[in-house]
Design goal:
Radius of gyration: 26 Å
Number of helices: 14
CATH topology of the largest domain: Rossmann fold
Number of domains: 3
CATH class of the largest domain: Alpha Beta
Shape: globular
Helix content: 25-40%
Number of strands: 19
CATH superfamily of the largest domain: HUPs
CATH architecture of the largest domain: 3-Layer(aba) Sandwich
Bound molecules: xanthosine-5'-monophosphate
Structural class: alpha/beta
Strand order of the largest sheet: 2-1-3-4-9-8-7-5-6
């Protein structure tokens, strides 16, 4: 049972798809150019039309194949999606002059399938310039706001619905309830999409595809590769070989933790490549951030390649596991993101190493991946780990990356994270870590002068890393981090706090 979310270019389409999953129904995002035949081929149980940045009267404004409204599939249009539905089915849309943004009071009128239990008035979340002026024939208007005479329109016979407000945003009261009413009651979709069903589906699919071939997986220490590997292990057990390349730029105890989990708990064959020396040699004297990224990325691939070639002598793996997530799949489809930093993933393997890819998390959002990880028995420390960049500590050591400086930062990072955990803030922060600048400053400790590095505390809140705000850490937490950094980390004599949001800053310093 799939729900298609038709994307009209709003940042809300992903959010809608996630909300549908939260209602325990599988959702997939499709482009607005999809035809009725393509929809029929996918056989969705319902369709949701997203909002969008355009006015329905703009040229060119995205349209929808009108035959989709004739398929007999329940459809919910949201904002732009509702306006387009109104217009294409013979209603009217007008500029409201100024529009409505933010919390707005909605007044109910008459019977409603979507809002049966709602009170007479209810606040909702609006963000629109145009509004539906007249609903098409066959629809009843079941709610209005001061600037949107048709805030909700319903045609229960054809099961077509339009809402001018945004039920998917977090601060929309009763928003999730409305989506669930549409999905569970109107479209009669049973809420059966669970972590267990995701795991069972993937395990069966992987077994069928892999047969008795061998599979390779690069573990990075991050959540996605760990969950992907655990899932593949459940499917094919010892046919999987994992590779963990220690670049010398990993977090404290990361390698040991990976080894303990995968070797001892899951009984997986793990090749632990201790490549620290080669990374530090390659990075000697390099200070330019992009060059560092390139060197680390390329060397990583070379190390991985060496393992793969060695394995190829005997048991040649045919498949490679990748922890690609759904947002990566959607974003690489749209191709509009500017390249601010060159990202490092295992994806850039050379062509002559030809693997077939297994991407068991391709349809999942990050929060779903974490839940799947928990269900598979991965330790909380791995499953709830904050994101960590591919080049590791390398992009947090400003200036030259040396073994000594990496050790200072690794110890400092451990202190920051440990104090954040103790304060109970680790899960609510998107990331919290230490940065090592390329300057030294004078201090006094005991009776003597010191001349050592400062550490910068970087902690941010974010939903998706596209934008972020600096976290307002409590003063006592900052104080205990600072005290411990200076007391426990040799080489550090000063602590600063980064109060830059993104934009204009990026989350990482390089
Ligand atoms: P920035 O610094 O660009 O980072 O605001 C956004 C998010 O991406 C992470 N990041 C990376 N992740 N490979 C990755 O897999 C990389 O090369 C990389 N660089 C940055 C960063 O930690 C943040 O969560």
């Amino acid at each position: 049972m799939t729900v298609l979310v038709v994307d009209f270019g709003a940042q809300y389409a992903q959010l809608i798809a996630r909300r549908v999953r939260e209602a325990r129904v599988y959702s997939e995002i499709v482009q607005s150019t999809i035809t009725a035949d393509e929809v029929r081929a996918k056989g969705p149980a319902a369709i949701i039309l997203s909002g969008g940045p355009k006015s329905v009267y703009e040229v060119p404004a995205p349209q929808l194949d009108p035959a989709i409204f004739e398929l007999g599939i329940p459809i919910l249009g949201i904002c732009y999606g509702a306006q387009l539905m109104a217009l294409q089915l013979g209603g009217e849309v007008a500029h409201t002059g100024g529009g409505q943004y933010g919390r707005t009071e909605l007044t109910r009128q008459g019977a409603s399938s979507l809002m049966a239990e709602w009170p007479e008035t209810q606040s909702c979340w609006m963000s629109h310039g145009d509004a539906i002026a007249r609903a098409p024939e066959g629809f009843v208007v079941s709610a209005a706001t001061p600037l949107a005479p048709v805030a909700v329109m319903e045609d229960p016979r054809r099961r077509l619905f339009g809402v001018q407000f945004h039920p998917e945003v977090a601060h929309a009261e009763r928003g999730q309830e409305l989506l669930e009413t549409f999905l569970h009651d109107v479209a009669e979709i049973a809420p059966t999409w669970t972590n267990t069903s995701i795991i069972d589906d993937q395990v069966a699919a992987i077994r069928a595809r892999v047969g008795d071939e061998r599979v390779l997986c690069a573990l990075s220490g991050g959540v996605d590769s760990a969950v992907a590997a655990a899932l593949v292990t459940k499917a094919i057990g010892t046919q999987l070989t994992c590779v963990f390349v220690d670049t010398g730029l990993m977090r404290k105890d990361e390698g040991e933790q990976i080894e303990a989990t995968f070797t001892r708990q899951f009984g997986v064959r793990l090749i632990h490549v201790k490549a620290q020396d080669r990374f530090f040699d390659a990075l000697a004297g390099v200070v330019d951030p992009e060059r560092k990224r390139k060197i680390i990325g390329e060397l990583f691939i070379r190390e991985f390649e060496a393992v793969a070639r060695e394995l190829a002598e005997g048991e040649s793996p045919r498949f490679l596991v990748q922890g690609t997530l759904y947002p990566d799949v959607i974003e690489s489809g749209s191709g509009h993101a500017a390249n601010i930093k060159s990202h490092h993933n295992v994806g850039g393997l050379p062509d002559d190493l030809s693997f077939e890819l297994i991407e068991p998390l391709r349809s999942l959002f990050k929060d779903e991946v974490r839940h799947v990880g928990e269900e598979l028995g991965l330790p909380a420390q791995i499953v709830w780990r904050q994101p960590f960049p591919g080049p590791g500590l390398g992009v947090r050591i400003i200036g030259e990356v040396t073994r000594e400086r990496a050790e200072i930062l690794r110890n400092a990072d451990h202190v920051v994270v440990d104090e954040i955990r103790r304060a109970g803030l680790y899960r609510e922060l998107w990331q919290s870590f230490a940065v090592l600048p390329a300057v030294r400053t004078v201090g006094v400790m005991g009776d003597g002068r010191t001349y050592e590095y400062p550490i910068v505390i970087r902690a941010v809140t974010s939903d998706d890393a596209m934008t972020a705000d600096w976290a307002r850490l409590p003063y006592d937490v900052i104080e205990s981090i600072a005290n411990r950094l200076i007391r426990e980390v040799p080489g550090v004599n000063r602590v600063a706090l980064d109060v830059t949001s993104k934009p204009p800053g990026t989350i990482e310093w390089e």
